[in-house]
User: Fold this.
Amino acid sequence: MEENKIILTGVKPTGQPHLGNYFGVIEPALRRSENNLNSFFFIADYHALNNGLSADEIKRLTHVVAATWIAAGLDSSKHHLYRQSDIPEIFELETILNATVPKGWMNKAHAYKAAMDQNIEAKRDIDHDVNMGLYTYPILMASDILIFNANQVPVGKDQIQHVEIARDIAGRFNAKYHSSTFTLPEHIIEKNILEVPGLDGRKMSKSYNNVVPLFASDDDWNNAVKKIVTDSNQEHTIETFKDTTFYKIFSIISGETETSKITDQIVNKSIGWKEAKDELLHQLISRFSEKSKMYFELLNDTNKIDEILKTGAEKIRPIAMETLNNVKATVGVL
Ligand code: TRP
Assistant:
């Protein structure tokens, strides 16, 4: 039955994807959609406007995110890959939804609350640096989801609340108009996702400056791998080695055979960290260099990416139009 579900997820074009994004989001989402022809992947460029990036950055990162998904294995002829801004019905729907969403729901949304808490702590005006885009972020996200009547929304833990709000918005609209206009979406948190630690052992995150880039040149990968924090004087048992950041990164990227081999080598001291890191680089290259090549080829041909995104949007826009017309009729503006 899973095959008939509509799966939808969006990514903001706000940064260069790293290994943490790949194993935590990209790869599990692609696996889930493997046998599902109703998968929608989009680039949430209107959401990204709230992050204060320049026009050039938004444009560049939109291409980066699209190329990443394609190089990671998304088949744009099988699945729907599009840019949020190419489906204007989403924004029209948002305006209609605005009329049914209680302001109090937005006061409780995490992103806004976090900004508010920071301002309180810094003894600033509570809404300092808060724009309306941040405030109404969950309503736009609800529009993204409801316009295609998605059933399942794979997201990271930080986005659960937003999907819950989308569900509440759908339910409230249906109740208000005694209709079954919207499907109630549910969030999906993939089980057994692999959490790659960052170079310093904390969560891998651009804001900690501890990432291994997903698609990169061998030199860039090498520079990242060299920065993995290791303890040079330590003798390792299997247990203590398994506890290292190096091991955690290595074992996620590599197969079991390579992982047990390097474990033996470290434990019996036939190699040191330098050789171990060379081997990790080798593993990165063998797992990701082909995909990297495709990624860079695509980025060199942004017209092609634009074409793919445009075609993706054209294919599904009729669905969005149908939902919007239905909603308009329901509220009395059609
Ligand atoms: N808010 C999501 C994030 O920051 C991105 C996003 C926008 C999204 N619209 C969505 C995710 C709809 C899932 C469904 O990661």
Summary: DSSP finds 15 helices and five strands in the chain. The CA atoms of residues 238 and 263 lie 7 Å apart.
